[in-house]
Automatic annotation (TrEMBL):
Subcellular location: Membrane
GO-annotated biological processes: protein secretion
Top-level taxonomic group: Bacteria
Protein's recorded name: Translocation/assembly module TamB
Membrane topology according to the record: Single-pass membrane protein
Record carries keyword Secreted: no
Keyword Transit peptide in record: no
Main location class: membrane
Cellular component annotations (GO), alphabetically ordered: plasma membrane; TAM protein secretion complex
PANTHER family: TRANSLOCATION AND ASSEMBLY MODULE SUBUNIT TAMB
């Protein structure tokens, strides 16, 4: 998520302003003569700190070339290869540099890696002092790469037309194409920016995408204020993968380290959503949000759950180095209908990185209800209770009812879990069902302890290890299998042991039965005493 925010909110602005820095900064150090060119190239850091130029040939009056232009700071490294400029200077006060063509084979921007971001400073663009006016046309960069970690953001066919005079940059046109082999995203930008700090700006951005990775749609944004305290007003019409198309608006204020969302609105076939909050990504991804939704329908994501839900919730948390450090969630209201059944859910919980506190969960769907509460630090201890008289309201494939209670205990990371069913009873598909016992998971093994399943006067007892190597002991007393499950007939009594692996089991069994049948398969009578071990 942190990387997505950097690509979607930070990197595009960095690319724009670093590109402008390359064009404006480097051209400011080239003069009419070879001697003057060498002089200003050698003193480039006086104008822009961290800027160096290599193998510069020619003059502005006749055109010039540079094999490499490099700018380095604590927050970014920029390198451009094979820069070729056609230009001329108009003598005036101040003089005007007219660039009729500028070509560069490749521009690479390297940003700090995620683990270095906390120790790095936020991106900052220094004041740019140009000794002349600028009129630049047909600036073309064949390939642009933005690196942060192992996966670059690649753009091609970057085109720029711009002017600079009276301390202001006039960006007439900036276009680029984002590509990754899964489609493309076209980006266009125009506007103005002051060259001196704090860099007041007024920019317009347009995006047109047709990409498997990024989605299909259009977006427009107006960026105002100052470079490190900008205002953002954006509209979008977007669809991703097979999910519904959404129309959205976003207003906020931000910097290269955070964004305060004053209003986010999304409207589409799966409902409407609005949110306000704060997102900070300088040292870690930190968020605080209040969300409201109406007529939300999860069916596009969960096809068996068509619904119309209204929701109000608060959420906050911290995500650092890909791990969730802390989070809070308060579901103040989740109401509506699932199919034609009413839904009413409330809940509140938090996690501080070590302890989960589920203060309360009360979920009602139709006539069914689930209650849960508990806490977990290094160990889980959650109490649950279910009363579901109409299971079909939850899933049409389920017919019947269920009622029970129990606990869920174990390790927070899921390496060890124990489900203790104190009592679970009901009727499924017309058959009575009662179950109790414990299931334990640990060391990638599943074990059953005193598990008892009863249906229609029939009983099955199971204990032992239920994963390879197996060590299961079972006992069955089923005088009337027809009352146990659909398709079964007859009676079956006995007990046995199942050990080892499926491909080489050790089996002991003592079974008797009569009139045995399952659907169209008839066995009749059974009297079996068996002992089998594969060597």
């Amino acid at each position: 998520m942190n990387q997505w925010l950097k690509h979607l909110l930070i990197n595009p602005l960095l690319v724009i302003f670093l590109l402008l820095l390359l064009v404006l900064g480097s051209l400011a150090f080239l003069t009419l003569s070879q001697t003057g060119t060498r002089l200003l190239v050698n003193n480039a850091p006086y104008f822009v700190a961290g800027l160096t130029l290599e193998n510069v040939e020619g003059t502005l009056a006749t055109g010039l070339k540079a094999s490499r232009i490099r700018w380095e700071s604590d927050s970014a490294i920029l390198e451009a290869d094979n820069v070729d400029v056609d230009s001329q200077v108009e003598v005036a006060s101040p003089p005007t540099l007219r660039v009729s063509r500028l070509l560069a084979d490749k521009l690479v921007i390297r940003l700090p890696e995620s683990q270095e971001a906390a120790a790095s400073s936020p991106f900052e663009l220094m004041s740019i002092a140009l000794p002349l006016n600028l009129d630049a046309r047909q600036i073309r960069i064949k390939e642009l790469e933005v690196w942060q970690g192992e996966h670059p953001l690649r753009l091609r066919d970057v085109q720029l037309d711009a002017q600079a005079h009276d301390g202001k940059l006039y960006l007439d046109n900036l276009q680029a194409e984002l590509y990754d082999g899964q489609g493309k995203v076209d980006v266009a930008l125009d506007g103005t920016m002051q060259l001196d700090k704090p860099h007041e700006l007024a920019l317009r951005v347009a995006v047109d995408a047709n990409s498997t990775n990024w989605g299909v749609g259009t977006a427009k944004a107006n960026v105002g204020g100052e470079l490190l305290q900008y205002t953002l007003d954006m509209t979008a019409d977007w669809a991703y993968a097979a999910y519904p198309r959404y129309q959205g608006t976003l207003q906020g204020k931000g910097s290269f380290a955070d964004l305060a969302v004053t209003q986010l609105q999304l409207t589409g076939a799966a409902g409407a959503l609005s949110a306000t909050g704060q997102v900070d990504w300088q040292d870690a991804l930190i968020w605080q949000a209040e969300v409201k939704g109406s007529q939300l329908n999860p069916a596009p994501f969960l096809k068996d759950w068509p619904a119309a839900l209204d929701v109000q919730l608060r959420s906050g948390g911290t995500l650092a180095q890909g791990k969730l450090q802390a989070t809070t969630l308060n579901v103040m209201r989740l109401q509506g209908k699932l199919r034609e059944y009413p839904v009413d859910i409330t809940g509140q919980g938090d996690w501080n990185g070590k302890v989960i506190n589920l203060q309360a969960l009360d979920a009602k769907v139709g006539d069914n209800r689930l209650l849960a509460n508990g806490a977990a630090s290094d160990k889980l201890d959650i109490n649950w209770q279910i009363d579901a008289p109409k299971l079909a309201q939850l899933d049409p494939r389920l017919r019947g009812n269920a009622k029970g209670k129990g606990t869920l205990q174990g390790q927070l990371d899921g390496s060890q879990l124990q489900l203790d069913v104190a009592d679970l009873s009901g009727k499924v598909e017309g058959y009575d069902l009662n179950a109790k016992g414990k299931l334990a998971w640990g060391d990638a093994k599943l074990a059953a302890q005193d598990v008892v399943i009863q249906s229609g006067g029939n009983r099955l007892d199971v204990s032992g290890q239920a994963t390879a190597p197996f060590d299961l002991r079972w006992k069955v007393d089923a005088p009337n299998l027809a009352k146990a499950w659909k398709g079964l007939e007859g009676s079956l009594q006995g007990e046995g042991i199942f050990k080892g692996k499926l491909e080489a089991p050790e089996i002991q069994a003592d079974l008797t039965g009569s009139k045995l049948r399952y659907q169209d398969y008839r066995l009749g009578a059974l009297d079996l005493q068996a002992q089998h071990a594969t060597r």
